[in-house]
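Can anyone check this?
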Amino acid sequence: MSHPITIQIPDAVFDSLQQRAKQLGKTPEVVAAECIELSVVPPEEDPLLKWAGAIDSGPGDAAERHDYYIGEALAKEMRGETDE
């Protein structure tokens, strides 16, 4: 079952939506509905969640300290050091 919904969006957002829909060969309405659907799927239903933590992706604080890690890597590179 589906339900119609009417929303107001700025011209710039609609233009981007229309452009993306054209790239995908879909209507703006279909793309908008898919975006909304993806944004409200509870995480426990996400089929990729079972793979969370399956690989070592490096430091756990990279999002917060990315500048530090980039700086450290650049400093090592400038000193001619390698991680091997």
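Reply from J.R.: I decoded it. The first helix runs from residue 11 to 24.
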